[in-house]
Amino acid sequence: MDKITTTTFSEQQTQLFAYEVTKKYFKISKNIIFLLEGELGCGKTQFVKGVAKYLKINPKKVHSPTFVYITEYHNRKFIFYHLDFYRLKPEIISEIFNDHIEELWNLLQHTTKKVVSCIEWSQKILDSQIHKFIKWISKENLKDKFAILRINFSIKKNFSRKIVVTKL
């Protein structure tokens, strides 16, 4: 299992780290799903802004989609989804996650663009759903088309952020 750990001391460092992680995984995969986990205010949205910057999407336009739960951005090369499950109930999360995966599958069939999904509060998705999705990727021989990364954030005593990236 591929794992990267860092500590950031500012929003800009968190964004830069996200930029570099995105760059690294696009070298080995056409599409990336970031599963962002951590408490309120720990840097998840700042990470998403760094991903957006790599995708040539203005990070100032990226806001936590807490009240709309999904925001979609497009440009010539990328389709970028930003989901936030903070306020949603488990049964709604399950339905949205399944619908999103189905949409990603359809995009694989019909677009040459690279697709990125950042899912904030992904710890609310049932592990069984994530494992089912990973099994499906293996079964359909799509491992080279998706990188699924779990990003865990924690705030340290000095208000820095510990960020652990694990490739699933």
Task: Give the helices and strands, then pairings.
Layout: E1 3-8, H1 11-26, E2 31-37, H2 44-54, E3 70-74, E4 78-84, H3 90-110, E5 114-120, H4 127-139, E6 146-155, E7 161-167
Parallel strand pairs: 2-5, 2-6, 4-5
Antiparallel strand pairs: 1-7, 3-4, 6-7
Helix pairs in contact: 1-2
List the main descriptive attributes of the protein structure presented here.
168 residues; alpha/beta; Rossmann fold; 7-stranded mixed β-sheet; 4 helices; 7 strands; globular
What does this structure look like?
- The longest helix has 21 residues, at 90-110.
- Helix 3 links the parallel strand 4 and strand 5 (114-120).
- This protein is α/β, with parallel strands linked by helices.
- A seven-stranded mixed sheet has the order 1-7-6-2-5-4-3, covered by helices on one side.
- It has four helices and seven strands, in the order E-H-E-H-E-E-H-E-H-E-E.
- 31% of the residues are buried.
- It has one domain (3-167): 3-Layer(aba) Sandwich (Rossmann fold).
- The termini are close together.
Molecular shape: globular
Task: List the helices and strands in order.
Answer: EHEHEEHEHEE
What integer value in Å does the Rg equal? 15 Å
Cross-sheet strand order for the largest sheet: 1-7-6-2-5-4-3
Structural class: alpha/beta
